[in-house]
Amino acid sequence: MIKIESSKGGMDPFRFFGTGEDPNLSPRFLEFNRNKRSFTVNLKHPKGQGVLHDLVAKADAVLDNYSVDVVERIGLAYHQLCKVKPDIVNLRSRLSA
Predict the structure, then answer these.
(1) What is the pLDDT of residue 96?
(2) Given this model, what pLDDT does residue 67 score?
(3) What is the spatial distance between Cα 56 and Cα 62, in angstroms, rounded to a whole number?
(4) Exposed, middle or buried by CB within 10 Å (0-12, 13-18, 19+), for 90?
(5) 81 and 35 housed in the same domain
(6) Whole-angstrom Cα distance, residue 73 to residue 76?
(7) For the chain, what percentages of helix, strand and coil (3-state, to nearest 5) are there?
(8) How many domains does the chain divide into?
(9) Helices in the chain by DSSP H: which ranges?
(10) N or C: which end of the chain has fewer CB within 10 A?
(11) Among 91, 65, 67, which Cα is nearest to 78's?
(12) Is 37 in a helix, a strand, or coil?
């Protein structure tokens, strides 16, 4: 599993729980993200979207927690993902308004 986080303010809040100054070593973050790889990417930039689409092309599923209007803008809407990989499974982690 690969976890993609925003490089500006959208990092996993569990990175900041626990002791220590390095958010990559937070005990709570390590507990909840065991065996996951992660990196940050700017999904508003075309190169960032390209990186994401390269990953989607090799993935079985994509899980996101953005609102519907955001996924469309950053190229993560289901119809956009299907252009990259027609059989992709798209999971939503929150209800959209």
Answers:
(1) 47
(2) 78
(3) 7
(4) middle
(5) no
(6) 8
(7) 40, 15, 45
(8) 2
(9) 27-32, 46-56, 68-73, 78-84
(10) C
(11) 91
(12) strand
Residues 96, 57, single domain; the answer is yes
Task: Note whether 33 and 60 are same-domain residues.
Answer: no
Tokens 């100054």 belong to 21
Degrees (nearest 5) of the Cα angle 75, 57, 41? Answer: 50
Residue 55 domain boundaries: 42-97
Question: What pLDDT score was predicted for residue 29?
Answer: 81
Instruction: Tell me: do 31 and 56 sit in the same domain.
Output: no
User: How far is CA 40 from its chain centroid?
Assistant: 9
> Are both 1 and 47 inside the same structural domain?
no
The pLDDT of 25-32, averaged and rounded, is: 83
Task: Give the pLDDT confidence of 37-85 residue by residue, as tens digits.
Answer: 888 888 888 898 899 899 999 999 998 888 778 888 888 889 999 999 9
Q: How far is CA 56 from the centre of its chain?
A: 11
Same domain, 26 and 47: no
